[in-house]
Automatic annotation (TrEMBL), chains A, B:
<dbReference type="Pfam" id="PF01381">
    <property type="entry name" value="HTH_3"/>
</dbReference>
<dbReference type="InterPro" id="IPR001387">
    <property type="entry name" value="Cro/C1-type_HTH"/>
</dbReference>
<feature type="domain" description="HTH cro/C1-type">
    <location>
        <begin position="6"/>
        <end position="60"/>
    </location>
</feature>
<dbReference type="InterPro" id="IPR010982">
    <property type="entry name" value="Lambda_DNA-bd_dom_sf"/>
</dbReference>
<keyword id="KW-0238">DNA-binding</keyword>
<protein>
    <submittedName>
        <fullName>Putative transcriptional regulator</fullName>
    </submittedName>
</protein>
<dbReference type="GO" id="GO:0003677">
    <property type="term" value="F:DNA binding"/>
</dbReference>
Amino acid sequence: MKNLKMKAARAEKDLSQGELAEKIGVSRQTIGLMESGKYNPSLQLCLAVCHVLSKTLDELFWQDE
Amino acid sequence: MKNLKMKAARAEKDLSQGELAEKIGVSRQTIGLMESGKYNPSLQLCLAVCHVLSKTLDELFWQDE
DNA sequence: ACATAATGCAATATATATATTACATTATGT
DNA sequence: ACATAATGTAATATATATATTGCATTATGT
């Protein structure tokens, strides 16, 4: 499923996918895929996103199934 | 670094690494490696661990560095 | 002390996350 | 309408998570 929380948090910081990717040191596609929910990122990557977007894991990635 | 929070949460449920692994559908080694901090698990795996151990992502995997 | 369960740790194999490049489409500003 | 930036998406290549098997070591119970 799409990760709209991450998309919103990125918007809050006024960053493009490319800018966020660069800050994290990852490719733009990886960010795009995370937001479109096309795959299963690593914990390190999630933590890096959290730090740049000033959110916690629960705020961006929690999902009660 | 080691993940002692996960180890403690597993102890709280009185599960062995093997039992936890089986409940999640993953190998025992994967659980062992997660706890010994030897690698970088996927978000799905973290979420599965959280659900079995009744914890959130932040409780088990957050680290302010 | 013994038996058994739990854990740590290698080596190799396989699945999949991520990079790279490229192109098409959609948004945004002038 | 045009230019440009942002995004979606695909194909292939590479790095790495995870499985599998096996053995050594440490804990736990009797």
